Amino acid sequence: MDVDFKGDTLENMKKLAEEAGLTPEGLIEVVMQQFVDNKGARVYTGRWTGGEVDGVKGFRYVPQWPFRPGFKEATGDEVKKWKSDSKKFRKHPTGEWPFYPRLKEGDIEHEYWNTKKMYHQSLINDRKGRIVHLMDGDRYDAFLDTVKKRKGNFWNTTIDAVMIEAIDDWMAKEE
Question: pTM above the 0.70 mark?
Answer without folding.
Answer: no
